[in-house]
Each structure stands twice: as structure tokens, then as C-alpha cells.
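Field guide to reading this record: the first block holds the primary sequence, the second block holds the structure written as C-alpha cells, and the final block holds curator observations. Each block starts with its own label. This record concerns HTH-type transcriptional repressor RspR, catalogued under organism Pandoraea iniqua.

BLOCK 1 — SEQUENCE
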Amino acid sequence: MLSKSSHLFDQVHDRLWDLIIKGEVQPGERLKDVEWAGKLGVSRTPVREAMRKLQQEGVLLPLSAGGYQVKNVSNRDMEELYTCRAALEQLATLEASRRLTQADADNLTRILALTDAALSRNEIDEIFRLNSEFHKAIFEFAANNHLIFLWESLNKLVLFYRSALLNKVKQRPELSDAYLKRLAAKQDAHRSIVKAMVEKRHTTAAELMEAHVLASIQELAQSS
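BLOCK 2 — STRUCTURE
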């Protein structure tokens, strides 16, 4: 049962989002507000509001018969999203590179070191988390509020798509080795981006980031 000490709508939304990201609620699964109200021990109103927000975020689809369905991710969805993401991240990297301070560079280097350690231990969940932290840091260092707003609007779907892939890997151990190799390649790309930023090769850093994100389109399509 959820706490009554804060807004139930936010709690219900975060709980449903967490279950979807963890794969406990699967793509294609149908959600009814009355059922989830019972499971969470709340009225139907905050559940309806939470599901409506998840629809707006692109995670749930409304059903004509009532209720919602967790979206199944198509290759076209991924291509469209990552094409937009690549453009945003290219610009963010360009601005972040131009503004880069020593503290920023140290933080990116810290993330790279932690990712190396996680890769050595095959800790897929931790690598996933650090990958998100790396990209978030780039946008923060760009210090462009409009870019951050646009990125945050896309990032929910990025996490949703990547989590769907991660959950599939967890369910099929034979995919783990190939997935870890791709994660190692991503780490190499991150390292090259940081090197270019530190060396003040701003345009190169931005181009490397764009290529890095666009490469994910093929990776996600092959794994879907």
C-alpha cells in the first residue's frame, strides 16, 4: 500500500514506471485502473491520472475497450527516437565541450572509471545506470535549459526502450556475452568523446557523440 503522506498520483505513477522499467509489467500487458487501485490500495482516481501521464510520456497506449496497454517497441519507434536523440546529444556535446571545466572533465573521467570497473565484473545493471549518468552529465555541462528540457522529454522513452532490451537480455542468458561486448564498445566511444572534449576538439566531440547515438539504432533493432 502506498503512503498517504505525499501526492498519491505521483506515487502511483512512479510505482507503475518502476514496475515497467524492471520488466515486472511487460510490453503488451494490459492495465486496468480498477485492478491497480486494488493492488496499490488507493482509489481509481490517482491510478487513472498516473496512467494518463504514462500515456502522454509514450509508455502506455489507450485501448478502445478501456484501460491501457504497455507499448510494444517497434524498430521504427527506435529509429525515430534515436534520430532525434542524436541531434540533441550532438548539440549538447558541442556546448558542453566549449564550456568544459576541469571539474566537469574529472566527473566524466570518474564515470568512465566506474564503468570500467563494472564492465570487469559484468555488472549489467550498474553499467546501464552509469551510461545514463554519463549522458545526463553532458547535458548538465552544456548548461542550456532548453536542451535539458527537450532531453528530459525524450529520456523517459529512451530508458523505456533500453530497459526493454535489458530485461530481454536478463531473460535470455545466451544474449549476455554479446550485450556486454556492445557495452564495452559504448565505453570506448564515451572515452573518445571525453578525450576530444578535454583536448578542445569541440566539433569532433559532437560528431563522435552523434555517431555513437546513431549506432544504437542498429544495435537495438538487432536485439528486438
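BLOCK 3 — OBSERVATIONS
The CA atoms of residues 122 and 180 lie 7 Å apart.
The longest strand covers residues 60-62.
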